[in-house]
Structures are given as C-alpha cells and as structure tokens.
Design brief:
This protein is an alpha+beta fold. The protein has helices spanning 47-54, 64-73, 98-110, 117-132, 135-148, 161-164, 169-179, 195-205, 254-264, 271-279, 310-323, 330-347, 351-364, 371-379, 383-393, 408-415; strands at residues 6-9, 15-20, 26-33, 77-82, 87-94, 185-191, 227-232, 237-245, 286-292, 297-306, 400-405, 423-424.
Length: 425
C-alpha cells in the first residue's frame, strides 16, 4: 500500500520527496533539475539537452561503458530527459540496489567528466538529423515558433546543429556549474523505500557548491499575434498544427482544460478523432494537446493528411473548433471527466509515474494533491468552465498555424476560410 509523500529540504537547499509503496520490490529514483531549453540564450540553443547526454559519458570512478554495465547488471532502466523547463536523470531498479544506484547517479549528475565529448557531439547531431526527418514531430516546433516567436519557448529542446557543433568542454562545464545548483535540484523516489534512508544518501552523495535555484534567463513570455509558419519538405502527407497560447502551470483552470482537451481531441471518442478520422477518413493521426509552463502555456491540434485532403481536413477541424465553444452536453462532459480521472488513477499504479509526479510537482512549485483531492477538482468543473476556456483559447481565426509539406500555397489556401490575415514567419 502507498502512504502520503514525505518532503525534506536539506541544509544545502536540495529537496527530497518520497512515497513509500510496500507492495512492490522496486524503487523509481529521479534527480530533477530546474533547467531546460527556455534557460538558454540563442548562442546556447541545445546545451541543456547536450549536457544531459554528457552525464552518461563517465564519472571519476566509472566509464560510460561501466555505468551501462552497472545498471544492466541490476536489470535496471536508466535514462534521462530534457524539456523546456526541466532535466531529469531517472532509474528503476530492485530495492536492494538502492545505495549503489544512488551513488552512481549522483556522480553522473554532479561529477561527470565530459569524456568523449566529440563522439557524443556526433551522436546528438545524428539525433537532430533524425528529428528533422520526422515531420510529425518537426511540425510541433514549427508551431511553437509561430506561437512564441523569438522567445526560447519557441525553439526546439533538442537544439540547433550549428550550436551543438561548436560547443566546447568549457561551455558545457560552465553551464553545468551555473545551473545545477542545490536550490534547483529535487530528489524524488517512489517504491519500497524509507524516506530517512533517501535523505541520508542525498546528504552524503549530493554535495553541490552553490546556492539558491537559478532563475530562468528568459522569463516574461511576450504576446505574439497569430501567425502562419511553413517548413518545406518532400513528404507524402501534410503535417499540420493549429495552436496558440495556453494557461500557465499553476492556473486553477488546468482541470477544466484537461476535460476540454479530452472532449476535443484527447481520445478515440473525442470529436476530432470521430469527425476527421472515423467519419471522413481524412487522417490516421489527429489529436489535441495542452502544455503548461512557468508563466505561459500552449494548446494545439495536430493532423497528418494527404495532399488532396488538406483543405477538407482543416475545414473539418475549424468546424469542430466552432462547436467546442458551444455548451457541451452533460453526458459528454461526464464521459470526459471519468476518462481523465481513470487515466490519473491508472498511471498511479506505476512507481515511475509516482516518482515523476513527486519530482516535477515539487520542482515546479505545484501542490502535491492526493488522488481524491485531484478528483474533487476535476468533479468541480462545470459546462460553463469548459465553454469559457474554449471561447478564449480555441477561436480558429485567432490561432497560429504551422505545417510541414511540399507546397506552401496549398497550405495557405486551406487556411483562407479560417483566416487570410495570418502573417507568414
């Protein structure tokens, strides 16, 4: 069974948050750092992600191969991820390996040697090239640029090849020293563990010079008028996104937004999936999403469709955007409510999901609500709450549009019924 989380702040400023689950034999452990691509200057675009790669390349005690062998020997999963506002190194292993796993991960986080930087640079450049070859992923960054303009939230997390190609050991180590400070670090763990033991390990292994959390270098997201952005690529489909600014992460309307997103395009019973795919056969993949950041957010819709169905697909989405701004039938809202609650509850059966919830919420300043408390907030959402959000954020004539495809003229023509006034970027 699971108990309530425990949270301790060390004298150094590092926070440790855990949740004990006695019904499992494993531990999910994550070291979270409040740094991501939005903290980069244009000349650093991609350094947060590149640093994440370098954490795996060796410590004073272990080479990259030995790190991999250590966790493979545990039968463990070891990985990392960088987002626009966070970096995390995480692992999932049997509880008996906790101490050694913590020691190695601590060394990776704080005492990486930047070994094999040149070879890892090539790996990251290949990753960037691979990403450029995936239009269904690339279009999301094309949309972010249209929505956020020159702000770092408009840049891809993975970075730019010309920047990554020029990074030196001094560049990366200086960034590491500046951003990986105690106030920016959260240790999160869920599984068969004792909180005091995790605190003890953190005190012993995580001796970091520095102080309070480093503030974001790039706050104050500017308002940007809706724009059109096109990336030319010889593809079989046109990959299209419509989107705009959303709500920040601590906005109480996030529960209503979760229901709105579920109704619009977040499931196989959603309006977009049923109209665009099931009824009209215009796409294999169509969905909506919402992201929240420190001081802003983004909402969006994606569809991948063939060249001869671009106009019909965009027109169908525009129709659904008009409909979503009308009162939602109670039965549809209730179905979305149960879907959102069900996904939340089922995700909590994973120790990694619990660790992620603990680490990200503490790092980003969100309350650690119990599942019942979260359900209460979801249940409190009304039809009026959903309509109010849809009215503000889902007006198709005020949304930016992005596409990856062969012919910009075809894309621009498809947008004319929505808004012919979108400025190109």
């Amino acid at each position: 069974m699971a108990q309530e989380h425990q949270l301790t702040q060390l004298d150094s400023g590092i926070r440790v948050v855990t949740e004990k689950i006695t019904s499992v034999r494993s531990v999910a452990l994550g070291f979270w750092v409040r740094v991501g691509s939005r903290d980069e200057s244009p000349a650093q675009a991609g350094i947060s992600h590149f640093l994440e790669h370098m954490l795996f390349k060796g410590t004073p005690e272990l080479s990259a191969a030995q790190i991999a062998e250590t966790f493979d020997g545990f039968g463990a999963e070891l990985n990392a991820a960088t987002s626009k506002e966070t970096t995390v190194v995480y692992a999932h292993f049997l509880d008996e390996h906790l101490e050694r796993a913590f020691e190695v991960m601590s060394d990776m986080l704080l005492r990486c040697t930047y070994a094999d930087l040149e070879s890892e640079r090539e790996v990251v450049l290949e990753e960037i090239a691979m990403y450029e070859d995936e239009p269904q992923d690339k279009v999301h960054d094309v949309l972010s640029t249209a929505v956020f303009g020159d702000h770092p939230l408009g840049r891809p997390v993975i970075g730019r090849g010309e920047v990554v190609g020029a990074l030196t050991v001094d560049d990366v180590s200086s960034y590491h020293h500046t951003r990986y400070v105690p106030g920016s670090v959260v240790v999160a763990a869920a599984g068969n563990l004792e909180h005091d033991r995790i605190v003890e390990l953190a005190q012993r292994c995580l001796a970091i010079d520095g102080g309070d959390a480093a503030g974001s270098l790039n706050g104050g997201v500017p308002g940007v008028s809706a724009r059109r952005s096109f990336y030319a690529k010889d593809t079989e489909q046109y990959h299209i996104c419509l989107g705009g600014m959303g709500i920040k992460r601590d906005d109480d309307r996030r529960y209503a937004l979760a229901l709105l997103d579920a109704i619009l395009g977040g499931s196989s019973s959603s309006r977009l999936f049923q109209e665009v795919r099931e009824k009209r056969g215009l796409a294999y993949s169509v969905y909506s999403w919402a992201s929240q950041y420190l001081d802003s957010g983004q909402i969006g819709i994606y569809v991948g469709t063939r060249e001869d169905t671009v106009a019909e697909a965009v027109a169908t989405i525009a129709t659904e955007l008009e409909r979503i701004r009308e009162p939602v039938p109670a039965q549809e809202l209730d179905r979305a409510r149960e879907q959102v609650k069900g996904r939340m509850a089922l995700s909590m059966e994973s120790t990694r999901a619990r660790m992620t919830r603990l680490g990200s919420n503490v790092l980003l300043g969100l309350p650690l609500l119990s599942l019942d408390e979260t359900f209460e907030r979801v249940d409190a959402v009304t039809v009026d709450d959903v309509v109010a959000l849809a009215t503000v954020f889902y007006d198709s004539t005020k949304m930016s549009a992005a596409a990856v495809g062969r012919d910009e003229d075809r894309f621009r023509s498809a947008l004319e019924p929505i808004s012919a006034s979108l400025a190109a970027v």
